Amino acid sequence: MAGREVIATVDCNGSLFEQFKHAYSFVLQRLHRSFTIKGPQREEILEIPQEAVREAILNGIIHRNYHMLSPIKVSIYDDRIEIFSPGQFVGPFSIANLKSGITYMRNPAISKIFRESGYVEKMGTGLITIFDSYEQRGLATPQLNEKSVIYRQS
Question: What CATH number has the domain bearing residue 50?
Answer without folding.
Answer: 3.30.565.60
